[in-house]
Specification:
Largest interface: A-B, 44 and 20 residues
Strand order of the largest sheet of chain A: 1-2
Structural class of chain B: mainly alpha
Strand content of chain B: under 5%
Oligomer: heterodimer
Number of helices of chain A: 24
Distance between the termini of chain B: 55 Å
Helix content of chain B: 40-55%
Number of strands of chain A: 4
Distance between the termini of chain A: 27 Å
Strand content of chain A: under 5%
Number of helices of chain B: 1
Radius of gyration of chain B: 22 Å
Helix content of chain A: 55-70%
Structural class of chain A: mainly alpha
Number of strands of chain B: 0
Largest sheet of chain B: none
Largest sheet of chain A: 2 strands, antiparallel
Order of helices and strands of chain B: H
């Protein structure tokens, strides 16, 4: 019975990944702000270029893998710090070479942190304020406020902290891999190096926001949860619960991790024991709520707000409404949904919820089944095959490019220009080439994950179930929610772990070097 | 031993030079106090978080 459930999850993910890989032979999902502005693009695949890039990356991967195996004779005490130091150097170089200035929400949360710190201005919680609408973003405002209080007011400080979080994620990728693949006799430095040099992660430090932080906490939480499931020591589950609660405080998709961990604990209830499992679940759920409760209590006790901060926040139906849109297939709807909440409902949660429900049912009833199917297919394929987490805009950045007009205008800038910003300007070969490479790498990674999943199904080995469940959770969630490929960033570590497993499995099968 | 010491000295010197050269770039990334944004309300809402 339990094995059957594991199997079902593996089959589901295999089907979805199969769809993404197959779709990539027909359509190319693209996000290139410098050329198209803030819009998702789906166009006909450049088949030959796609195959050539994939072949080049595969060859490079094989070469790098062979090189990484040579490092096996060195102790992890040398290799891990050395790789993390090299990654730190590359990331530091990036934040100096691409001094991207914050835009839209990123700039807003920074300004709010300054207003709160220097002027004691908490008016953003009042009606029409940013935090009135998005109270969950108080976490990042509080974090930035703390950094501004303790360190010089410099973008580099915040970005250096981002680098710290990325390095934690890199280490966690390695530890998680080793935990799931404990029988491997090789030291598997390749997965550490892959995580340390994965371009979207390196560039994303340029985004002053919550993605990088949440990713570090949630990946660490998953690592400790996996340890708990293997060793049944409650202390690991307490670490996992705390890390998960913090990760969720920064980005609310922590709930998907919570559900995935809870299901996996239930699947391992025999091995862990009923008492321990129930206790672990209770602790996890309880700790999960703590940051939100504490925040509400403190804000009210200090007189910053009256009543709950989320009493009249934007309802979840706003994002669901954005998620059902045939012309944008769930991407940003150019303030249509904002207008419903702000103008038609006057920033009222209950009123806007009703309006959004009506709007969603209108869209669903007016559309033909075929159109809806097409929209969801586009939505799914674009989100999951864009492959760069929109690092082109949020990581590389753009110099003085403005799209849109009036309130909707979004301008990207650098603090200063460098040879690198010039090299990656507009639709330059460097920018387009890097995006192509990352796009293709993502599809290759899906291919390797498929190898691993099918291998698992054949041999009845289901160690990666918690990771599979998190990915399935993200697929289900972003099928309904507003989309951005950046929103998938918190699961890049899991994709790296699973794809490296598949790559190794394929390598061992082809070159007949059985290690396990 | 001597070569290690020489290498360490060289590394320190290099770091000092790089830091000096970076000073200009560090100060260029100072965060301005965006008081003017307050006039736009209590935070802009351009994109979804």
């Amino acid at each position: 019975m339990v094995k059957g459930i594991h199997k079902l999850f593996y089959i589901l993910l295999t089907l979805f990944l199969g769809l993404f890989v197959a779709a990539s032979f027909l359509v190319r999902a693209k996000y290139l702000y410098a050329v198209y502005g803030d819009t998702p693009v789906l166009e006909k695949q450049q088949f030959l270029l796609f195959i050539v890039t994939a072949a080049a990356l595969l060859l490079a991967g094989l070469g790098l893998y062979a090189l990484c195996r040579r490092l096996d004779r060195f102790s992890p005490k040398i290799i891990i710090p050395a790789v993390l130091a090299a990654s730190f150097a590359v990331q530091t170089a990036i934040i100096f070479l691409f001094p991207r200035l914050p835009t839209d929400d990123s700039q807003t949360v920074l300004t709010l942190a300054q207003n709160m710190l220097y002027r004691g201005d908490y008016s953003s919680f009042q009606t029409t304020g940013y935090l009135h609408m998005f109270p969950f973003n108080f976490s990042i405002v509080l974090y930035l406020k703390t950094l501004l209080l303790l360190f010089p007011d410099n973008y580099l400080v915040i970005k250096l902290f981002n680098i710290g979080f990325t390095l934690v994620t890199t280490l966690m990728v390695y530890l998680l891999y080793k935990e799931l693949n404990g029988k491997s006799r090789s030291r598997d430095y390749g997965v550490l190096i892959l995580a340390a040099l994965y371009a979207p992660a390196l560039f994303m430090n340029n985004l002053i926001y919550n993605d990088v932080i949440a990713t570090a906490f949630l990946t660490s939480a998953l690592y400790f949860a996996v340890r708990f499931m293997k060793e049944a020591a409650l202390k690991y589950m307490i670490y996992a619960a705390v890390l998960q609660a913090i990760g969720n405080y920064f980005r609310s998709i922590g709930a998907i991790f919570l559900v995935a961990i809870a299901i996996t604990i239930l699947l391992h209830i025999r091995r862990i024991g009923v008492k321990k499992s129930v206790l672990a679940l209770a602790v996890t759920v309880l700790v999960f709520m703590v940051p939100g409760w504490t925040q509400n209590l403190l804000l009210q006790a200090t007189g910053k707000v009256e009543g709950s901060v989320s009493a009249n926040s934007a309802p979840v139906y706003m994002w669901l409404n954005m998620g059902v849109n045939q012309s944008t297939f769930g991407f940003w709807d150019n303030r249509q949904s904002y207008n419903i909440y702000q103008r038609q409902a006057g920033y009222n949660k209950e009123k806007s919820t009703e309006l959004f429900k009506e709007e969603i049912s209108r869209k669903l009833s007016e559309a033909e089944a075929g159109d809806l199917l097409r929209m969801y297919a586009k939505k799914l394929v674009w989100t999951w095959t864009e492959g760069t987490y929109q690092m082109e805009r949020y990581g590389i950045g753009n110099g003085s490019s403005t799209f849109g007009r009036g309130l909707g205008a979004v301008g990207d800038k650098y603090s200063y220009t460098t040879f690198a910003t010039e090299l990656f300007k507009g639709d330059s070969n460097a920018r387009v080439g890097l995006i192509w490479a990352m796009y293709t790498l993502n599809i290759l990674m899906y291919g390797f994950i498929l190898v691993r999943l099918i291998g698992g199904l054949k041999s009845g080995r289901f160690a990666e179930t918690p990771l599979v469940l998190v990915v399935l959770g993200f697929i289900a969630f972003y099928l309904l929610w507003e989309i951005k490929s950046r929103y998938l960033f918190p699961i890049y570590p899991l994709l790296l772990v699973m794809s490296y497993m598949g790559f190794k499995e394929m390598y061992d099968a082809i070159f007949a070097e059985k290690e396990e | 031993m001597k070569s290690w010491k020489a290498a360490a000295r060289l590394a320190v010197l290099l770091i000092c030079c790089l830091s000096l050269a970076a000073c200009e770039y560090i100060s260029a990334q100072t965060i301005p106090d965006n008081v003017q944004n307050r006039s736009q309300g209590q935070g802009r809402m351009e994109r979804t978080p």
